[in-house]
Specification:
Number of helices: 28
Largest sheet: 10 strands, mixed
Number of strands: 21
């Protein structure tokens, strides 16, 4: 038994030694290609991991800051509208099962000369100190009653720094078109880093900001032993749809839904680089297996089993993936730290304002991306490893069987299955408001398209070769076509890097271009006035009174002033509020003001007691609204009926928006204020003449004036900033594609040294061989670009018409950026030809006789 055990131990030790020797030999022989594969995996993991860390840190910090505004409340009662009468508070405070009810007035107060509002909480300090002690003000010990003073406001440290004030300094805020001057009486007990908030006495806040008798919410703390979920359902039934009773999980759900689509899309786009890296590993391993067929066959003859050989090749791939993933995690962590420190947490999306998150190591995310890096590398190595294990030693020991080793790549049925599944998945609905099926369809279509390349390249190049040989022509081109026609497996591997990267470039470029052009057309349709006026461009404490509206309309040079009022409605406690836009709409021609997407109802289609509303596309997806649908909204008197008169396109509010005629809104709510105005000028009057006249109005300091060109430029700047990561990923895809081309051409050229030696023996010069390589590289890249265009166009259709509507709930028209794609195609074509020639110089420098003798 001891002899058997010792022999087994010696055998195991020998196998381990052989494994290490083979790994070291492969690394020393082809260190460059291994480093490129590792770098590609590392880049893909780094991008995905960095995006995950940034989004996770920002989301967690923003959620924590939002939760901190509620303190230890069990439930929150809000109106479906932004505010409600404070007469609703006493019944809640005395409701059975309620231990404490704290009224809150929550305002996004406009700050002059600032690009963001200040969150101000009006609180009852006696009740808030029990339910949210961290959010109470800290007055000076000499002035303890400042917490009740009508001119005192308490600012968080971040708010003091942002406003440039200290305790005791005055601070100017805006209410309507007037300035409210308050005194900084102190700080706040505890807030999150970067959280800009202020607190003051609720009565003072109501008076100072024109909200007398109004509340935003009531925080409830339940008595011991009360079933929170049952109490919530009962209270919601009692209050009806005019109020929303929510839990803290609903607050977190609103935050999650607000940014979920953006976060997921950023992660998916980041993983595009990792997918391309997986294909590069595949091409590297496939070419390495082909090159070492004779070595593997000799090992098989010497006693290595198929399973051991399979493990050896998979181990090589796993090693590449491990090194790349570990390096990627380190680089991704550093990237996330730099981005959060210098560029903020939004990645251009604007979903997490006013927070200062810090990146932290996430074990689960790290493990996932480590597994992804190793997994894609193993997948890339699996097919070459299986081929090497299945190969029979005797044929493999002979030269010339390289192409037969890749024969399985020409099997078409797996590719056709992938394409069929992709087509079926495009019809699937989203899952949790996320286009999971759409993403899978894109991946399957890309895999299926690449898998079809061996068969397609064989058919095309054989056709070209027969056509070429039927008439006299340059021998270099004839040899190039013959080589490409008779080695479709190796050709497909060489073309795969170009195809995969260019496909993704085309798909993303068409998607971004379609979105941008659609936004430009949408703006051109909406911006029909000459001058636009906004009161308090940020915050919700601005508004024009009817007398001020009359003064604007009577300003010399103004032919017509169309006023609008922006508000919010909460229809679902777990979803963000829906925007409510009240403006002048011609019911007989709503398309003059709205970019409609389908049929509309005419005024004869609804009854006199019904009010028409026009829903954005997001309302169709999120709330199931349909044209002609009758519904009840928490607006105006209870039981009033609204009818959906049309669906319009909105590229601003992915959480949903409703438009209503201004006259109907004022009749239902009694709110006669306006937040915006679209001014049409008299004939011959220019905006440069009208705006100075408007600035002469007594309240003009509170107004923001814009022309259509300014709004268009500002919107497109925000758009480009939001898609900055997409542009970066397109550049990464180009770089990875060129790396793949370089590595693949270099490997294939060096493996063909015997072929070049034979050509030299029969009289072909070095220059002709280099021309042959340039021709092959040009033909391969041109075909890869052509097929990449077709495949990328198909994927862009999924992105434009499936992924984006399901992610952001808006539609767009299709636009192709021909100029950009042409430039990228020319760059890749030139780079491929240059790479092929550069790699060929080394191969043709090998002595011709020695290269041929290697086969004997």
């Amino acid at each position: 038994m001891s002899d058997v055990a010792s022999r087994r131990g010696a055998h195991t030790h020998g196998l381990r030694t052989l494994t290490r020797w083979l790994l070291a030999a492969e690394w020393r022989s082809h260190k460059g290609r291994a480093l490129i594969a590792i770098a590609t995996i590392a880049l893909g993991v780094a991008l995905g991991y960095a995006v995950q860390l940034i989004n996770s840190a920002a989301f967690n910090e923003f959620s924590a800051a939002t939760r901190s505004l509620s303190g230890e409340a069990d439930l929150q009662v809000r109106s479906a509208q932004p505010t409600f009468e404070d007469s609703a508070w006493p019944p809640l405070a005395t409701h059975a099962g309620v231990a404490l009810a704290s009224p809150v007035l929550e305002l996004d107060v406009t700050v002059p000369d600032r690009n963001a509002p200040l969150k101000v909480l009006g609180i009852d300090v006696f009740r808030a100190s029990r339910i949210a002690p961290d959010l109470t003000g800290v007055p000076d010990s000499q002035r303890p009653f400042d917490t009740l003073a009508d001119d005192a406001i308490f600012l968080s440290s971040a708010a003091q720094e942002w406003l440039g004030v200290h305790v005791g300094d005055p601070v100017a805020l805006r209410s309507g078109t007037s300035i409210v001057r308050l005194r900084v009486a102190g700080g706040i007990v505890r807030t999150r880093p970067g959280q800009r908030i202020a607190v003051m006495d609720i009565a003072a806040a109501q008076w100072r900001f024109g909200r007398v008798g109004k509340l935003s919410r009531v925080d409830l703390q339940l008595a011991r032993g009360v079933d929170r979920e049952r109490f919530r359902r009962t209270l919601q039934e009692q209050l009806g749809n005019r109020f929303v009773v929510s839990e803290m999980r609903d607050v977190e759900s609103r935050t999650d839904r607000l940014s979920r689509a953006y976060r997921i899309n950023m992660n998916v786009l980041a993983l595009v680089a990792l997918f391309t890296g997986a294909f590069l590993v595949f091409s590297t391993q496939a070419l390495g297996v082909v090159r070492r067929r004779a070595q593997f066959a000799m090992l098989r003859v010497l006693g290595i089993t198929r399973a051991q050989l399979l493990r050896q090749i998979l181990l090589e791939g796993a090693l590449l993936g491990t090194l790349g993933a570990v390096a990627g995690i380190a680089v991704g962590f550093a990237m996330a730290s730099v981005v959060l420190r210098f560029f903020g947490s939004d990645l251009g999306g604007g979903y997490f304002p006013g927070v200062q998150p810090t990146v932290g190591f996430e074990p689960v995310a790290s493990a996932i991306f480590l597994a992804l890096g190793i997994g894609v590398s193993l997948l890339g190595s699996l097919v070459p490893a299986l081929e090497a294990a299945r190969a029979h030693p005797a044929p493999a020991l002979k030269a010339g069987g390289e192409e037969s080793a890749l024969g399985r790549l020409a099997t078409t049925w797996p590719a056709l299955v992938c394409i069929a599944l992709a087509a079926a998945l495009t019809q699937a609905p989203p899952v949790f408001d996320t286009p999971i099926a759409g993403y899978l369809a894109v991946a399957l279509l890309l895999i299926g398209g690449i898998a079809l390349m061996p068969r397609l390249t064989s058919m095309l190049f054989r056709t070209f070769s027969r056509t070429r040989t039927s008439r006299a022509g340059a021998p270099v081109m004839t040899l190039a076509l013959a080589r490409l026609a008779n080695a479709p497996g190796q050709v497909s591997i060489a073309m795969g890097g170009v195809l995969s990267s260019f496909t993704l470039i085309v798909a993303m470029a068409i998607m971004v271009s379609s979105f941008r052009v659609s936004v430009e057309e949408w703006l051109a349709h909406l911006l029909s006035a000459d001058v636009y006026v906004r009161v308090a461009p940020n915050g919700d404490t601005g508004g024009l009174r009817p007398d001020q509206q009359a003064l604007i309309a009577a300003t010399p040079g103004i032919r017509h002033a169309a006023f609008a009022r922006t508000s919010q409605l909460t229809l679902d406690p777990s979803r963000p509020p829906v925007a409510l836009l009240a403006r002048e709409i011609d019911a007989t021609d709503p398309g003059a003001n709205l970019q409609l997407t389908g049929a509309t109802l005419t005024p004869t289609a609804w009854r006199r007691d019904e009010t028409p509303v026009w829903a954005s596309e997001a309302m169709v997806d999120l709330y199931g609204y349909r044209v002609g649908q009758r519904l009840s909204l928490p607006l105006g008197e209870h039981g009033h009926t609204f009818v959906v008169a049309g669906v319009w396109r909105d590229y601003v509010r992915q959480t949903g928006a409703l438009q209503i005629r201004l006259a109907d809104y004022r009749q239902l709510t009694g709110d006669t204020n306006a937040t915006d105005a679209a001014l049409t000028l008299e004939h011959g009057v220019r905006a440069e003449q009208a705006i100075p006249a408007l600035r002469a109005l007594p309240f003009a300091a509170a107004l923001d004036f814009s022309q259509p060109g300014d709004i268009r430029a500002r919107t497109l700047t925000i758009f480009d900033r939001s898609f900055a990561v997409t542009y970066l990923l397109e550049a990464v895809a180009i770089v990875i594609g060129l790396f793949g081309v370089a590595a693949t051409f270099s490997a294939q050229t060096l493996s063909r040294s015997r072929e070049f030696g034979m050509l030299r023996h029969v009289g072909v010069t070095r220059g002709q061989i280099l021309a042959l390589l340039a021709a092959e590289g040009g033909l391969l890249t041109a075909l890869g670009i052509a097929m990449g265009c077709a495949l990328g166009f198909a994927i862009s259709l999924i992105l434009v018409f499936v992924v984006n509507p399901q992610s952001f709930h808006w539609s767009m028209s299709l636009h192709i950026p021909w100029a950009l794609l042409s430039v990228i195609a020319l760059v890749m074509l030139a780079s491929s030809c240059t790479t092929a020639v550069a790699a060929g110089r080394r191969a043709v420098s090998i002595d011709a006789v020695r290269a041929v003798r290697e086969d004997w």
